[in-house]
Amino acid sequence: MVKNVLSNTLKANKEVLNPFFLIYYLKKKNIRNKIRNLSGQAVNQVSIKPSELHRFKIFLPPLPEQRKISEILETIDNAIEKTDRIIEKYKRIKQGLMQDLLTRGIDENGQIRSEETHRFKDSELGRIPEEWEVVEFYDLFDVIDNRGRTPPFSEEGIIPYLSAENVKEGKILYYFENFVTEEIYKRYMRGYPTQDYILFTTEAPLGEVALAPKIKFCFAQRVIAIKPKKGYSKYYLFLIQHELIQRQLNNLVSGTTVKGISAKNLRKINFIVPPLPEQHRIASVFSQIDEAIEKEQKYKEKLQRIKHGLMEDLLTGTVRVNHLIGEGVKDEKF
Predict the structure, then answer these.
(1) What are phi and psi of 273, to 5 degrees?
(2) What is the distance between the alpha carbons of residues 21 and 79, in angstroms, rounded to a whole number?
């Protein structure tokens, strides 16, 4: 049934309205839009007069059904919160391992190195395992740098233009606003990154990385592509995200409004380079954690889709839950 009860039931009349049902009801997108229209203000600045609340009508099922709907939606919310905690736990584990593995490494037996059991030496980047080296940026990487060459975009273009906004937290975000033609792609690209290249943002934001995607793409301003001359790309993908590299980048930025790093200053960045087998071992650990995080994130997204569908069905009466309550609730429309 439809009732003009919002202003009265906000006083927590528990004989008419379950407060948790009201909370979920007010979270529905179309309801938030109605409230915004009543107030005439932005969503995050909504202020409604009591006189306006009297004009606001809500769909209100019988109280037992309200409780059951709230219970169902709360169960989904609890599952989402639990998944969030698992994701955060994995992220904390990864952060701790980055501090250990990217400065001390893993030996052939799978043990994290320590100065009590392994030989270490002094370096420009602090104490590192004896087998490791410190190598400058341009000695370590082949670089494709298209900066200074913004290509003209075209509505007829089919090759996506990848910008710094597409590179975030070790991954490519696959949404593209601009495209170029094949002719422009060939004219403006100074090289063609394969999947063993790392895309590296040089400003706004600085220091984000991701492995180059499988698709053909164009890039120019604020993004360069780098590939280790001898090494494993995934290892450097994780290393660049570590504070050891991020701190060096931040110390070498130029510009006042937009902070960026020049090709000249990139030369000054030093990298710690373990033997190749150890690079693979280190990258494998982080890859497994990333896979676990991604799995949980996809599960969370699935739960959010389920919740959205349930809110649309249960809070509008499209789907009833009377059969889950037992006797005593009439199957009336609301």
Answers:
(1) -125, 105
(2) 18
Please report, for residues 172, 187, 203, 242, 259, the alpha-carbon distance to residue 206 in angstroms, rounded to integers and kept in the order given: 15, 27, 4, 13, 7
pTM given for the model: 0.81
Q: HSE-up of 239 (CA within 13 Å, CB side)?
A: 25
CB 235 within 8 A of CB 196: no
Region 282-293 average pLDDT: 96
Hey, do 63-131+275-316 and 133-273 end up sharing a CATH topology, with the first three levels equal?
no
- Please give the CATH number for the structural domain made up of 133-273: 3.90.220.20
CATH of domain 63-131+275-316: 1.10.287.1120
- Please tell me the distance from the alpha carbon of residue 13 to that of residue 179, in angstroms, as a whole number: 57
pLDDT tens digits, 21-32: 888 888 877 777
**Which residue carries 């229209």 as its tokens?**
37
Q: Which helix (H) or strand (E) holds 248?
A: helix 243-251
Look up tokens 């991604």; give the residue.
Answer: 294
For the chain, give every domain's residue range: 1-60, 63-131+275-316, 133-273
The answer to whether residues 303 and 83 touch, using CB atoms and an 8 Å cutoff, is yes
* Mean pLDDT computed over 1-30: 66
- DSSP code at position 331: -
44: burial class by Cβ within 10 Å (0-12, 13-18, 19+)? Answer: exposed
Q: Which amino acid is present at 202?
A: T
Which residue matches tokens 């893993």?
A: 106
The structure tokens listed for 330 are 């009439």
Q: Which of 161, 162, 198, 171 is nearest to 298 (CA)?
A: 171
Strand partners, 3: 58
Query: pLDDT band at 55, cuts 50/70/90?
Result: low
* pLDDT at residue 41 in the model: 55
Structure token digits, residue 296: 């949980």
CA distances from 184 to 74, 148, 155, 227 (A): 53, 15, 13, 24
Element (H, E) at 99: helix 63-101
